[in-house]
């Protein structure tokens, strides 16, 4: 019998959670005390939104990400709902647009001004009215622009098209009425062609959202699911819930066969809901328990045993809810691969927790940052409703990199002003050098690129992040510690640019030598 080692090789085996220091937390935040099982927090690279306590209706706070420290007790709120706010979600393609749903049976779309709020925001951009009872969940479509899903206590999932001029929309594009009880969670696959839901009847359903038909339904009695999640392109589902003996557990399913789970694993005997989060770029699964301070994380693979336990982040402060930063907002200079925003009701505190891969090198780590979903939709609302599917448009997280287009533009032929003929090897080396840097020479751009493309590149440059912060809109430091951190970041950036410049000088000299050799060869001929 051959012996199989118990330990497996993994670059994420030593990932650890690093909580933010006190001055980088958000203090004195009146976090909601609602018992609804939701995240109550939504984050993007500009803002953090958190559902708050409010008398006479529902409200939530929108705090600029850099505005850490103690919050002003009179800080303006977004308060247009007549009932408690139950869920908030940022538009993945517009960092200044957010959707909220409430007990007043409405969904509202808000446009957040780029400058700081000076008074309460009560006027929404759009109001969606269609549910007969309170609305508990909202989800944006992952690839199509202006498509929003909502789930209400009337057991219906509604699909809304926001690409209209109407400020009040009363009729959804589709209504899915296959559920027999309250819907507990919704999740999309990578291109948004499938929707997975869990219901209070403890069944998992995989639905074709455009047709409204149930493709798969789990009737397995041994696992009562509360939350469900698509695992990227693995064609698998992960659900969290309870076993027959009321132990909290996670279960792995084949999305094409929900008769029996591929894997069941009991975690503990606590009663709080488990929130799963999956990072498709690193194939890591994070399981966050409501009411406890722990975050467990696993590595997921397509082969058995499918789920490999890595380790656990532990804290004494229980979390009421949790928010997650999109990958494009992470600090790649510190090898940060995930970031949570933990709501601690007992301290009125929001605590960022960074999941970090320990690396000695300070350069950009290409192996832990593959191309990830960016902030541009790959489909319009009408294209998706007509039946088209498209994977997300990918971007590189390397500082200063450009968009990775799914349909690349026609290649531009390099223009050399030298009279000597250029070899194919030389052309390939020059194109490779330009592709690595993500730039072309200014003379080529002026000759080959139309004005609209140049303006589009300028718009993209405005959103470039360097070392995790925006070089054009960086807030001034407020404390001596922040000033030192900014100084060290700038020193690191200068060092990195010097190394890059040295590499480019060496490559330029190699190109000059090759051109010289070609000229000498042509003269001899």
UniProtKB/TrEMBL annotation:
Pfam families reported for this sequence: DUF1899 (PF08953), WD40 (PF00400), WD40_4 (PF16300)
Placement of WD repeats on the sequence: 78-112, 128-170, 176-217
InterPro entries associated with the record: Coronin, DUF1899, WD40/YVTN_repeat-like_dom_sf, WD40_repeat_CS, WD40_repeat_dom_sf, WD40_rpt
GO molecular function per UniProt: actin filament binding
Gene Ontology CC, one term: brush border
Keywords: Actin-binding, Coiled coil, Repeat, WD repeat
DUF1899 domain boundaries: 5-69
SUPFAM superfamilies: WD40 repeat-like (SSF50978)
Family statement: Belongs to the WD repeat coronin family.
Protein name: Coronin
Organism of provenance: Papio anubis
């Amino acid at each position: 019998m051959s012996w199989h080692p118990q330990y497996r090789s993994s670059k994420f085996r030593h990932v650890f959670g690093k909580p933010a220091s006190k001055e980088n937390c958000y203090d004195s935040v009146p976090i909601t005390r609602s018992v609804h099982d939701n995240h109550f927090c939504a984050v993007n690279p500009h803002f953090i939104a958190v559902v708050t306590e409010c008398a006479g209706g529902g409200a939530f706070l929108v705090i600029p990400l850099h505005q850490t420290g103690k919050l002003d007790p009179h800080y303006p709120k977004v308060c247009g709902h007549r009932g408690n706010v139950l869920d908030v979600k940022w538009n993945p393609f517009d960092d200044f647009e957010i959707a909220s749903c409430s007990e007043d049976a409405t969904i509202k779309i808000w446009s957040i001004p780029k400058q700081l709020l000076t008074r309460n925001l009560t006027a929404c951009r759009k109001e969606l009215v269609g549910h007969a009872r309170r609305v508990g969940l909202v989800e944006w479509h992952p690839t199509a622009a202006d498509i929003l899903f909502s789930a209400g206590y009337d057991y219906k999932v509604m699909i809304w098209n926001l690409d209209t001029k109407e400020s009040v929309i009363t009729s959804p594009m589709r209504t899915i009425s296959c559920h027999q009880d309250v819907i507990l969670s919704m999740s999309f696959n990578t291109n948004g062609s499938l929707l997975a839901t869990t219901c209070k009847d403890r069944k998992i359903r995989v639905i074709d959202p455009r047709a409204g038909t149930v493709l798969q339904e789990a009737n397995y009695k041994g696992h009562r699911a509360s939350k469900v999640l698509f695992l990227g392109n693995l064609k698998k589902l992960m659900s969290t819930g309870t076993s027959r003996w009321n132990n909290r557990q996670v279960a792995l399913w084949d999305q094409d066969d929900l008769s029996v789970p591929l894997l069941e694993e009991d975690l503990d005997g606590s009663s709080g809901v488990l929130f799963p989060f999956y990072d498709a770029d690193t194939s890591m699964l994070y399981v966050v328990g409501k009411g406890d301070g722990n975050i467990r994380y696993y590595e997921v693979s397509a082969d058995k045993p499918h789920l490999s336990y890595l380790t656990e982040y532990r804290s004494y402060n229980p979390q009421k809810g949790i928010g997650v930063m999109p990958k494009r907002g992470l600090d790649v200079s510190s090898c940060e691969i995930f970031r949570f925003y933990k709501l601690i009701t007992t301290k009125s505190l929001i605590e960022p927790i960074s999941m970090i891969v320990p690396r000695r090198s300070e350069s950009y780590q290409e192996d832990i940052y593959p191309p990830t979903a960016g902030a541009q939709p790959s489909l319009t609302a009408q294209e998706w409703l007509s039946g088209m599917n498209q994977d997300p448009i990918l971007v590189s997280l390397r500082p200063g990199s450009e968009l990775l287009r799914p349909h690349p533009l026609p290649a531009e032929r390099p223009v050399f002003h030298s009279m000597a003929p250029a070899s194919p090897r030389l052309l390939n080396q020059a194109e490779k050098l330009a592709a690595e840097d993500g730039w072309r020479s200014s003379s080529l751009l002026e000759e080959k690129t139309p004005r609209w493309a140049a303006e589009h590149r300028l718009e993209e440059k405005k959103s470039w992040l360097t070392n995790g912060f925006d070089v054009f809109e960086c807030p001034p430091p407020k404390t001596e510690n922040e000033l030192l951190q900014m100084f060290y970041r700038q020193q690191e950036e200068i060092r990195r640019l010097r190394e890059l410049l040295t590499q480019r000088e060496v490559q330029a000299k190699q190109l000059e030598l090759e051109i010289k050799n070609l000229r000498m060869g042509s003269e001899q001929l």
